[in-house]
Amino acid sequence: MKHAQSSAGKPWQGRLLQPFLHFHDAIEHTPARRAQVRLLAFCGAIGMPLYYTLWHHYFPQEYESPALRIMAALLFVPALFPHRFSNTWFSIYLFVSLTFELPFFFTLMFLMNHASALWMHSLLVALVVLFHFDTRIAVLAYLSGTLLACAVFAMQGDPSFLLDTQVLQQLPIHWFTIVVLSLVKVSRHVGAQEKLAGLAAGLGSVAHELRTPLVSVEANVRGLQRLLPRDADGAGTDADSGAACQDALARIQFEVRHMHHMIDLFLLSASAVSSRLEANESVGMHETVTAVLKRYPFVSAAQRALVTVDVRSDFRFPGQTELCVVILLNLLRNALKAIHRAGKGRVRIVIDGNRAVPRLLFIDTGCGIAASRLPLIFDRFYSYPAHNGSGIGLALCRQILQAWQARISCVSRDSAYAIFVLEFVQPAPDRFSPPLRAR
């Protein structure tokens, strides 16, 4: 609990990081993206000293700077170990390094070498690399890095050169390149959304098809359960055999209920992928948690007893009730699976609305999450162990919460605990109906 409270209990830290939180939302944190960043960092760490040698000794340029090259090479080094960063700090680091390494460094070298053909082409390549990242981050890095490079050049060189034809004629080429790259990325994003929508539609169709045979199985089980006592009395059925049959039917009935629950979860998830996620109502947290616990198909009363709810102070937040159910069902299912794998532990749900930022803590003392896996758990299609689901549950939770301007994070200790922290904004009194309840 100390770890969960330490970050949330420092408002100054939250205010300090607030300007950077949208970077966390914008930058993808998939294993593939981190591998790309690692490869780019490896090329940059080697390329900086290598090209200094080329441009200084073999193809001498008007201006070179060993100090800038060393700074750039060192700035690449942390990206060689992206798994050591949390998603938020990785986003901040990536923005700072992209700004320095690409628009700032290459623009400054372009200006200091008086728009030579070599640095003109190098700057264009740098912009192409930059705009392979999220467009919002790339535009901000491009503007800040370019302006900073111009300011540094103006202090060191001839400011009037900034308005020279050799410099200005590059701007239309750069802007056209940026527009083309952005349009290509939009097309790719639309294609990815269409694939997700197709996956959602297929998932929904399969779920609906499974519902009919399950209803039939459940009806037959109820019929057999009514017949078994009569068989035992009238036909001399062995009592032990009758009890065993009753146990078997009860197990079948549980499995059917569990499948109904999973189908509900699939349908809700499919709806979340293909529909609008924006908040449109005021949701009560305690009410939703209670509904989820009633809805979840616990294996037994003993498993239900593993889950406790601590209501420090209830709160309401802008969201959607059904989507909040999806989030909590996913978290509860993951927590109980962690306890099952570990063979020990409990689940504690803490509703803590008596804070500037209301939050829900979802704590399990099961198997925990390894530090190397923690930055990846919200990545789409990532699951650990590999056979432990489709890898869309936590990614979907984060996507929904981001649409509500809320946040989800996790702190964990391997083989000890996992704490998921959900932080919410409070709705304005007249924004949603029904009105907020008094605390």
TrEMBL record:
It comes from the Bacteria. One of its GO terms (molecular function) is hydrolase activity. One of its GO terms (biological process) is osmosensory signaling via phosphorelay pathway. Pfam families: HATPase_c (PF02518). Residues 205-428 form the Histidine kinase domain. The keyword Cytoplasm does not apply. It catalyses: ATP + protein L-histidine = ADP + protein N-phospho-L-histidine. It is an enzyme of class 2 (transferase). The chain crosses the membrane at residues 37-55, 67-85, 92-111, 117-133, 138-155. Keywords: ATP-binding, Hydrolase, Kinase, Membrane, Nucleotide-binding, Transferase, Transmembrane, Transmembrane helix, Two-component regulatory system. The keyword Transport does not apply. Its EC number is 2.7.13.3. PANTHER family: SENSOR HISTIDINE KINASE GLRK, TWO-COMPONENT HISTIDINE KINASE. This is histidine kinase.
